[in-house]
From TrEMBL, chains A, B:
Active-site residues (renumbered): 205 (proton donor), 378 (proton acceptor)
Domain Metallo-beta-lactamase: 31-225
Lineage: Bacteria, Bacillati, Actinomycetota, Actinomycetes, Micrococcales
Name of the protein described by the UniProt record: Ribonuclease J
Family according to the record: Belongs to the metallo-beta-lactamase superfamily. RNA-metabolizing metallo-beta-lactamase-like family. Bacterial RNase J subfamily.
Chain residues that bind substrate: 242-244, 374-378
Subunit relationships: Homodimer, may be a subunit of the RNA degradosome.
Gene3D superfamilies: 3.10.20.580, Metallo-hydrolase/oxidoreductase, Ribonuclease Z/Hydroxyacylglutathione hydrolase-like
Organism: Marihabitans asiaticum
GO BP: rRNA processing
Keyword tags: Calcium, Cytoplasm, Endonuclease, Exonuclease, Hydrolase, Metal-binding, Nuclease, RNA-binding, rRNA processing, Zinc
Length: 562, 562
């Protein structure tokens, strides 16, 4: 079993005629998907998404792929291909285009509409090229054929990339719903043709490789949704991702059957469904959709709301309803449907919202209960086996997953007959060269987390996050002293300000004489440098606080010369 | 459907001949279980546990039940009965005994041994009374009979409390393993006898009321553990709770069969298993247990380690191994078993540890995979139905659970024929009076979170936690200025110190003139009060930081007179 060594070095130049693959995000995590494919000095980028921070990254807004490896080579980039319109595949595009606004952005109609809406907020007008399944577009030596795949957002594409150095097939995110709502199935015939032509490197979605069997069809949940509608006594509130057009479609259809009106709640929900309807992906039954204000005039049992927040996001509509901080006042016998599964790490927040809604008297239907109100957007192990057997790739690179997902996906590839040493496991930054029909790990490039943090991009670092964790867990003590260095005496202070302590302020009175004594001693010795005096204060406070209240807060000594 | 109203008032005095039940923890959360039972002015306490903080409670060490309601009435407490030795049932005892060290502490042999070890660390010697199943002890008007129940720790008890005002049966935590390792089953015959005598109020464990069917027997997982032992090529590392004696027993037995030696890792694991072995609950096969240092001299395929950290706790042995920060260097083809399920909210940490271990090349077996290496310690819905049908209680109070668990447990009670209006739902602090055979919500008493935070108990409050969250997410800016108020001028500063910002320090140079201008204006107007001058600084900085970098940090202005 191979795994990346921390001691991988920057790779040697790519052998002539070889293809280099550099994942800059999405391998070792679920999010910020981005793959750079290189041939003869030119670069093709597949996807450029964001990762959402967890509680180890306090205060961070977004995490981007690390562009360092390509930052000096933006002129070599021939295009960026977007497989679909989810944030973890398109969210980083505005930041990439800041480096080079003229890179062609390639994607399906819906994907481009979503990325253009996002770029507009960043005041960027991109050069776009709309494509659809079956089309073939050539970018330098990269001859790209687009293949329909089914996912939890419409209009998703896989891309078959022919290069003189070998053929790559990148699935993007996909599953193989055989009865999708829009009839647009994952095109296994195109996968088969690619396989017959020869797939030298197959990049496959690992998200559900740990899930045995097959992902159920989207339409299987309609009976559970209908059941909720039959039993609901008052309002129905459906929460799902604002990009899940087919899920919203199912709620609209159920509402029409039940004679209820639907309002969309939340900016992203309204915007995305508008785009989807304009492009024909969402079919709004006549007269079903109303403005949220119109609901006030309707009886509760004629009302449906569709909103975001099914992941327990604290600022989304649903969490605010659970906390009675939203104009929709959830009450006795309202019915809430959470039409998604918690993303790993979000479980606590989701349960918090569910408990809050139930405490208000609402009935809550969710994917952890007996009714199936959610199916995943990703292929399970059974589907992946089909795909490996249809494509029969020479080499496989599992993508899109935490390490455990990548390992499980590799094991599936091997089970179908792919040679174990032809399935490299890689994390972000690990470089794979495809040379003479064989994919190998050849090194690693710098690939850290790049944080969007307030107005800054890439300035936040691990030291900053450590500071924030200390501030959060241990608090800080600031000590201000004004000294007259010529006289060698303290003329004001020490003024002590502390935050983050449970102990009352009176506890700090006992450190004051210690600071005064330490300063007096230092000044008596002729220390006049404020930096050194600050060290004196820091040591006096640090020793006291560690002993007295067993904490290690941040200590901020400020010595001003006055 | 009833639910507690925020406007519940402090209850009127208990009617003569009635019994009052006041849950001070464990209702609306999993943790800090504590119930106060009152009759004729005297109080019996059942359990006194701790709750572990989540990421909304940064820096907090533990959360206690709120003792305010009983703090002035400690002389009325006749005893504290502990149902079993888990932290969420005994962890608060040291803090309760600080209020009144002479309250008799009643529990089974193992429970008392665990609570005494804990009290020793707090330098408290308790008055204890050891009891066992079948025994009956009278504390004033509370006539307590102890009943064996099966749980994920040995020697657990339910308690049947006869009072002149009615009979209460409290299950504690339990399940109904019909083939437990130690043969000690939940005594349904005793439950039946209590039911025939008459149970006026039945307090039942709600934890698994949302889980359909029956909790599998502990011994069912032995085949999965044996399978791991058969396939393991190198070391085996088993992680579980340090109180799960039977789980450790299974690993010891499997190790003996496989001819491996076992070392226990971690202070709590070593201590608890020592106690369990001394009391005859853990049977260590001859020669199997060795000191962890002895493992260095054994081949890897003869080695087993048992440690804590199966919940992904960052400081526990397993997480440190995953982060290569432990003397046990997990490597290629070691096998790790996580013998527990993630507690809701811990999933993210558990996955982080699993990914870390897999990245080191280890195989990881866990409850989310295909092999059953864990069973719960709590009765599922099917078992609860049996218990309701055997006891046939007049009234039910679901305890031990988040709101969603309490609701599910109530529904089960009603399904067996308990009258819906005889199953009050209550959260911590909600008061239930049992009067004339009927249990009703009659009010609420103060019942907040009591935080153990560094050296302080009960001093940390919501304002403090809000401060910490602001410090974590937004950082702080401290501005120090020395002024000569008689001259009306700034003589030193502004000295700006900021932490928690991604932006470089140079960004703060643009606020300096704004502060100077604001101060000059205030001083020119004759403002000499340092408090007012600090307000001037705060406003100048706040306006700038909100506009310039769109943050709302904590602002600490310090104006010293020099």
């Amino acid at each position: 079993m191979s795994h990346p060594h921390p001691d991988l070095e920057f790779p040697k130049p790519l052998a002539k005629g070889g293809v280099r693959v550099v994942p800059l995000g999405g391998l070792g995590e679920i999010g910020r998907n981005m793959t750079v494919i290189e041939y003869d000095g030119k670069l093709l980028i597949v996807d450029c998404g964001v990762l959402f921070p967890d509680d180890h990254q306090p205060g961070v807004d977004l995490i981007l792929p690390d562009f360092e490896y390509i930052a000096d080579r933006m002129d070599d980039v021939v295009a960026i291909v977007l497989t679909h319109g989810h944030e973890d595949h398109i969210g980083g595009v505005p930041y990439l285009l800041r480096l080079a606004p003229d890179i062609p952005v390639v994607g399906s109609q819906l994907t481009l509409a979503l990325v253009e809406a996002k770029l507009k907020e960043h005041k960027i007008t991109p050069y776009t090229l709309g494509v659809s399944e079956g089309m073939r577009e050539v970018f330098g030596d990269f001859d790209c054929e687009f293949i329909a795949v089914n996912h939890s957002i419409p209009d998703a594409l896989a891309v078959f990339i022919r290069t003189p150095g070998g053929n790559l097939l990148h699935t993007g995110d996909f599953k193989m719903d055989q009865l999708p709502l829009d009839g647009r199935i994952t095109d296994l015939r195109a996968f088969a043709r690619a396989g017959e032509e020869g797939v030298d490197l197959f990049l496959t979605d690992s998200t559900n490789a740990v899930v045995p069997g097959f992902t159920a069809p989207e339409r299987d949940i309609s009976s559970a949704i209908d059941k909720v509608f039959r039993h609901a006594e008052r309002r129905i509130i459906a929460a799902c991702f604002s990009s899940h057009v087919h899920r919203v479609q199912q709620v609209l259809d159920a509402a029409e059957k039940a004679g209820r009106k639907v309002a969309l709640v939340g900016r992203s929900m309204v915007r995305n469904m508008g785009i989807a309807a304009d492009l024909g992906h969402l079919h709004v039954p006549d007269g079903v959709l109303v403005d949220v204000k119109a609901l006030d005039r309707l009886p509760d049992d004629k009302v449906v709301l569709i909103c975001t927040g099914s992941q327990g996001e604290p600022m989304a509509a649903l969490a605010r309803m659970a906390g009675r901080d939203h104009r929709i006042d959830v009450g006795e016998d309202d019915t809430i449907m959470l039409l998604s599964s918690p993303i790993p790490g979000n479980e606590g927040s989701v349960w918090r919202v569910i408990n809050g809604l139930m405490r208000l008297g609402a009935h809550v239907v969710h994917s952890g209960g007996p009714d199936r109100v959610h199916v995943s957007g990703h292929a399970s192990a059974g589907e992946l086996l089909y795909v490996y057997n249809i494509v029969k790739p020479a080499n496989v690179l599992p993508v899109h997953g935490e390490w455990r997902h990548l390992v499980a996906n590799r094991d599936l590839a091997i089970a179908t007959g792919v040679r174990p040493d032809h399935v490299p496991l890689a994390e972000d930054g690990v470089v794979i060269d495809l040379v003479d029909g064989r994919a190998r790990v050849v090194g690693a490039v710098p690939c850290g987390y790049v944080y969007v943090d307030g107005s800054s991009v890439g300035e936040a670092d691990e030291d900053l996050l450590k500071d924030r964790r200390i501030l959060r867990d241990e608090g800080f003590i600031s000590v201000v002293v004004a000294v007259d260095v010529t006289e060698g005496k303290v003329i004001a202070g020490p003024e002590i300000t502390a935050r983050g302590f449970a102990e009352g302020d009176e506890i700090f009175s006992s450190v004051r004489p210690k600071i005064e004594a330490a300063l007096a001693e230092a000044l008596a010795k002729g220390t006049t440098d404020t930096g050194q005096l600050q060290q004196v204060v820091r040591r006096a406070v640090g020793g006291w606080v560690g002993g007295k209240i067993r904490r290690r807060p941040m200590i901020i000594p400020v010595v001003v010369e006055a």
